[in-house]
Specification:
- It contains six helices and seven strands; from the N terminus they run E-H-E-H-E-H-E-E-E-H-H-E-H.
- By secondary structure, it is α/β, with parallel strands linked by helices.
- It has one domain: 3-Layer(aba) Sandwich (Rossmann fold).
- Helix 1 runs parallel beside helix 6.
- The chain is globular and about 55 Å long.
- The two termini are about 15 Å apart.
- The structure holds flavin mononucleotide.
- The site of flavin mononucleotide has 14 residues, from helix 1.
């Protein structure tokens, strides 16, 4: 399988980086071809310019390469912290620029954009791994866990990905190393479940 892994966290020593390392290592162990992107390290520009919006726009080379990779991926993993109930802006901009018409979705020929989109992504599964500092009951009761809706319906459902599995790890700020080791083991299990070895 071709597997893309997209990480959005500015600090190389973060738990998000440890999660991403576990994801890429497990995917490689399972024999998959891995394309890993640390968006901050790559200096990804998240601002969608006006000229790129129309379908069929001429894209900068790096954006065209990201688009081709995401279109060809059999599985995609996103790793990011919860920032104000949203992904960090760098990842929001990645979705704006890469999950574009003709790559992630299209509308019917006679539709001017108001109809039901047809998802185009080839990926059969998306894994979303989040971290936060809010206890899960407060996240549900007070904030309604906006990331759940965003990833499952607004992004994966829209783009035609049949399975979106999401796990929020937390509370990070008070967690001890034994807890973090357990969480990383859980990450490994999730990757093995969603993206097993091609021979298994
Ligand atoms: C700009 C910003 C916004 C944040 N917003 C939230 C939030 O809405 N809910 C929450 O639980 N944590 C929030 N946090 C805390 C981060 O989610 C937390 O630092 C991160 O998940 C810890 O992971 P790390 O150890 O990999 O950095 C925010 C942090 C920053 C810097």
């Amino acid at each position: 399988m071709k597997c893309s892994v997209i990480l959005a966290h500015p600090h190389p020593g973060s738990f998000n980086h440890a999660i991403a390392e576990m994801v890429t290592g497990t995917l490689r162990q399972n024999g998959h071809e891995v394309c890993f992107h640390d968006l901050y390290a790559e200096g990804f520009d998240p601002v969608l310019p006006r000229d790129e919006i129309p379908r069929g726009a001429v894209l900068p080379d790096n954006i065209a390469r990201y688009c081709a990779e995401i279109a060809a991926a059999d599985g995609i993993t996103f790793v990011h912290p919860d920032w104000w109930g949203m992904p960090p802006a760098i990842l929001k901009g990645f979705i704006d620029r890469i999950f574009r018409p003709g790559i992630a979705y299209r509308f019917q020929e006679d539709d001017s954009g108001e109809g039901i989109p047809i998802g185009l992504l080839r990926a059969k599964a998306v894994l979303v791994l989040n971290t936060s500092n809010t206890p899960s009951c407060r996240e549900q009761e007070v904030f309604g866990d906006p990331l759940e809706r965003l990833w499952k319906d607004c992004i994966c459902g829209f783009s035609g990905v049949p399975l979106c599995h999401r796990r929020m790890f937390g509370v990070i700020v008070t967690s001890r190393s034994e807890q973090r080791i357990q969480w990383l083991e859980e990450v490994q299990e999730l990757v093995n479940d969603l993206f097993p070895s091609d021979t298994s």
